[in-house]
Design goal:
about 160 residues, mainly alpha, 8 helices
Length: about 160
């Protein structure tokens, strides 16, 4: 199925959120644009204490299980490329306790996109075998964990 229209997104809060406030409508690299949409939200989340930050991201992930599954069913396509809520949550998780600054934000962005695109194991297995909203979210959560570990190790090494 093709991307929903802007009007369809505006009429459906589920699609609007799942499509990253419209960023998932990009004809090229919607996952990258969805991750870019996560940046201003991360900037707002960054000053939170770690427990609150993680709580917000956990709630966003649980909401994402529903959003991504509902959007997928509405569109009749499992993991439609325009569904980017999972990329947004993945980026926020990548950036958990990351050092402040745009350089780190860019580094986290690149790491997350690399792991999300390359899908090393077990990410690739999850992407192929776990379906529904949980499957759509889970491969990005795993990519975020990989990216976050590399980011944190880099920060320690540079520290």
């Amino acid at each position: 199925m093709q991307n929903p229209s802007v009007n369809q997104l505006l009429r459906s809060p589920t699609l609007l959120l799942a499509f990253g406030f419209g960023s998932g409508l990009s004809p090229k690299a919607p996952g990258t644009f969805g991750t870019l949409m996560a940046l201003p939200f991360w900037w707002l989340l960054q000053p939170l204490p770690p427990l609150w930050y993680l709580a917000v991201v956990a709630v966003a992930a649980v909401v994402g299980f529903y959003l991504c599954g509902a959007a997928s069913r509405a569109l009749g396509v499992h993991d439609h490329g325009g569904i980017v809520w999972d990329e947004m949550v993945g980026y926020w998780l990548t950036m958990f306790m990351a050092p402040a600054g745009w350089g780190w934000a860019l580094y986290g962005f690149v790491l997350f996109r690399l792991f999300d695109i390359a899908k090393p194991q077990p990410i690739g297995w999850v992407d192929r075998r776990v379906h529904g909203g949980v499957g759509i979210m889970l491969d990005d959560i795993l990519a975020a964990v990989y990216a976050a570990v590399i980011l944190q190790l880099t920060a320690l090494w540079m520290g």
